[in-house]
Amino acid sequence: AELLSYPSNVYIQIVQYLHLDEQAGINSLRRKVDEVIAESPALPVVVIIDPLYKMFHHDLTVAKEVNYFCENMDILLHDYNQMKDGFQRQLALVFVHHSRKAGVDKEGNRTSQDSEDSFGAKQLAWWSDTIMKSTLDKTDETESSITLAFTKHGRDAEKPLPKLIKVTWNRDTLHPLIKARIMPKAPEDELELRSDLEIGQLE
């Protein structure tokens, strides 16, 4: 299934004890990124860290520790998004992270903190450009369907992001199949004309 799932320019590596909240771990990640760039210098690089909490040696709930991590990620993004050796390097970071234990309201319903649902200090959510929350679709007895919701929208998004994405996973190929994209309504979609006049006449 792995051969069917990933194209040739995807590099997978299982690394134990890679701590990105320490300088040794940051330097190790830099060496890995350099190796990938050497193989495909003209292609953008997307680094996916899964799961994030495994990359922390210190306390993920302590603001000082998370701030140090975020500052190092900022430096990494700065250094690898510049022109070098005739190529415009492009690097993006994706972290797969666990959510905190859900709270309940007075009626016993699960509550959501949206972009601050992720486990750990709030600085992590504040630093993130975009946050997507994955939720298992409990109506699917095969447990192969999820819903994806953007709880924080990227500042640099070229177009409006979907409000909700429904995905089913093919267990044979491990490929996702997007079943539906629910887009947010534009402000003009909510307009109700109170007369027979056209908008141009009302301006």
The succession of helices and strands, N to C, reads HHEHEEEHEEEEH
Structural class: alpha+beta
**What is the approximate shape?**
globular
Main pleated sheet: 4 strands, antiparallel
Assign a percent range to the helix content. Answer: 10-25%
What value does the average pLDDT take? 82
Query: Biggest sheet: strands side by side, in what order?
Result: 5-6-7-8
**Strand-residue fraction?**
15-25%
Query: Low-confidence segments, ≥5 residues, pLDDT <50?
Result: 191-203
Q: Can you give a write-up of this model?
A:
- With 203 residues, the protein is α+β, with helices and mostly antiparallel strands.
- The radius of gyration is 21 Å and the shape is globular.
- The chain has a four-stranded antiparallel beta sheet, with no helix packed on it. Strands 1-4 form a two-stranded parallel ribbon.
- It starts with a helix and ends with a helix.
- The chain has helices spanning 2-5, 23-39, 63-79, 123-127, 199-202, and strands spanning 45-49, 83-84, 87-88, 91-95, 131-136, 145-152, 164-169, 176-182.
